[in-house]
User: What shape does this take?
Amino acid sequence: MSGADAMDLVVDDARLADGRVVSLGIRDGRYAAIGDLGPVEAAARIDAGGRLVTETFVNGHMHLDKVFTLPLAGDGALAAYTGDAMGAAQRSITEDASAVKKHYDRAWIVPNVRRALDQAVLNGVLHVQAFVDVDTTAGLEGMAAVLAAREEYRGLVDLQVVAFPQDGLLRDEGAADLCEEALRLGADVVGGIPWIEATDRDAAAHVEWACALAARAGKRVAMLVDDAGDPSLRTTAMLAEAMLDHGLAGRGVACHGRAIGQYPLPTVLRLVDLARKAGLGFVSDPHTGPLHLPVRQFLDDDLPVGLGQDDIEDAYYPFGRHNMLEVAFLAAHLLDFRNDADQARLLDMITVRAGRVLGLNGHAIAEGNPANLCVHHDDRLVDVLREHARPRWVVREGVVVAESEVTTRIVRSGAA
Ligand SMILES: [Zn+2]
Assistant: This one.
């Protein structure tokens, strides 16, 4: 192989998640050949040394405008969201956490967003669905900051920016107009949070408004649904039905949905059928609250389910470093996903299946697809999850965009 057949990058001795050990030949940003490539010219080579090589990571749900704002919100907001089995989650959002937004100014939000996106690149997280508060308190300050960051990081991280009316639409008169303005400024996705409204009728009107707008604007829709300790909440089903009504099948995502975990099984199974019909994807973030989606049931029924970092040091969660392996590691415990098969499912929920949730085209290591990959430090998935270290190399469309080395040693005094 030579000349026109030469590769831009070859990753040799790459162990894929299915156990195959292959060479990955990359040309023009895509996988041109996978397998035993024989002698092949390449402008650059990486020797993976039999280590695990995966797709880059997808963060299905992230409040990107709020990162590192916990010092402004204080511990009280954190306790209010998760306390009493999320019984008062609504008040914590509209009262305690909302207080931060009175101080919103793109001048300090942009550096925080950069810090979170730098962490994303180093951790191999190259696709993020970023929710940004758009309401009469935050105005468009957070949106302006995240849209600026989206352009600054173009070619490193792909942001799907969601115009998110965090305080509701009927509760917060003026938020709907601001969301439409956010779309004109360049937001990619119409957001929503129907369960925050005062009545089911208002919640239905909220969902209807968002899906009608998304259909009109040719956008996707993504909502934060049923996020309290109340099994009577039904806004996920409302979203799926409205997607079908507005021709949005396959173009919607439901995030959080913690109340669904409290539904009786017949209600869960009805929702599974409806979600499948609507092509509704889900994102779970079990580390940021005491309740979570029935993830195992949804996976058994082959629904698109991904994991989300959700928060980094804000009024809802004090930790986080934009590390989806860490999120998967935490989910392993909280979802009781421990054996080999479940570990493979965790990886799927931060790579290929998560790509399906966000409607990404060809996010999998296969010929013809974009060559976005991580070379890890270990050859077994269990070790990669256990360590949840930054990948040795992160490659985006055939180009190395991050590399991390780990150097440690034990020092024994008196030893030679
Ligand atoms: Zn969230």
Summary: The mean pLDDT is 95. The CA atoms of residues 130 and 176 lie 19 Å apart.
